[in-house]
Amino acid sequence: AQSVTQPDIHITVSEGASLELRCNYSYGATPYLFWYVQSPGQGLQLLLKYFSGDTLVQGIKGFEAEFKRSQSSFNLRKPSVHWSDAAEYFCAVGAGDSSYKLIFGSGTRLLVRP
Amino acid sequence: DAGVIQSPRHEVTEMGQEVTLRCKPISGHNSLFWYRQTMMRGLELLIYFNNNVPIDDSGMPEDRFSAKMPNASFSTLKIQPSEPRDSAVYFCASKEAGGWKAFFGQGTRLTVV
Q1: Which residues of chain B have pLDDT under 70?
Q2: In the prediction, which pLDDT does A1 show?
Q3: Are A90 and A36 contacting, i.e. CB atoms less than 8 angstroms apart?
Q4: Would you call B108 exposed, middle or buried from its count of C-beta atoms within 10 A (0-12, 13-18, 19+)?
Q5: H/E element holding B5?
Q6: What is the pLDDT of residue B39?
Q7: Within 13 Å of residue A45, how many CA atoms lie on the same side as its CB?
Q8: pLDDT of residue A51
Q9: In this complex, is the C-beta atom of B107 within 8 Å of any C-beta atom belonging to chain A?
Q10: Is residue A30 predicted with pLDDT exceeding 90?
Q11: Which of A98, B43, B69, B84 is geometrically suited to a Cys-Cys bond with B52, CB 3.0 to 4.6 A?
Q12: Residue A66: is its pLDDT beyond 60?
């Protein structure tokens, strides 16, 4: 069965520091992978996605993620965190025909220290 | 486009009452999803419509939950009767045919007391 694991429930970083949020997936075929961000009281916004090709993908707001098939991972990174990045981040894998079904991880809440 | 529009944003109701959540997808999108978000279970897909037809309702928790999509611009999720364990944030999302990007609404926070 498909699943997504985000091992870190909370992460705290200082503003300006680098960030890496971990995501591991379990999926039989080539996965469609996504990272979404949810700000308080808001819906989810897509940061980036991976379908195929270059394993390092760039997203919005300066985020990037690297797909590593050997590790079944799709970690999200940002070189310098801004206070406005404080939010909850969800990794998801697309499953089902046409990958319509998004299976989400449990989320990682990012706190940013001034 | 105004994005996916959900109403109401907040709903407080008493146990046993009927609750109806509404969603207007982005114009031109033919896929619509209802998700539920709770602390315990995270984000779960409840039901998926394609061209107004329910394709996958395996995530609907029980018969108290029902969803309809009478036309391409409107969907409802109904809970009857509601229970305290239904308290959650319910999200609607839509995407266009062949597309991969799902656009989420701001959600409806439901509290059943």
Answers
A1: 1
A2: 73
A3: yes
A4: buried
A5: strand B5-7
A6: 87
A7: 15
A8: 87
A9: yes
A10: no
A11: B69
A12: yes
How, if at all, do strands A24-26 and A3-5 pair? antiparallel
Longest dimension (CA), chain A: 44
* Contact assessment for residue B110 and residue B90, using Cβ atoms and an 8 Å cutoff: yes
Distance between start and end Cα atoms, chain B: 35
With bands split at pLDDT 50, 70 and 90, how would you rate the model's confidence at A99? low
Q: For A103, which DSSP code?
A: E
B104/A43 CB distance under 8 A: yes
Compute the mean pLDDT over every residue in chain A, rounded to the nearest whole number: 91
Minimum Cα–Cα distance from A93: chain B residue: B100
Give residue A98's pLDDT band: very low, low, confident or very high (50, 70, 90): low
Residues of B in contact with A105 (CB under 8 A): 42
Contact of B93 with B108, CB cutoff 8 Å: no
Q: Closest to B42 (Cβ–Cβ): which among A41, A49, A107? A: A107
Residue B97 in contact with partner chain A when CB distance is under 8 A: no
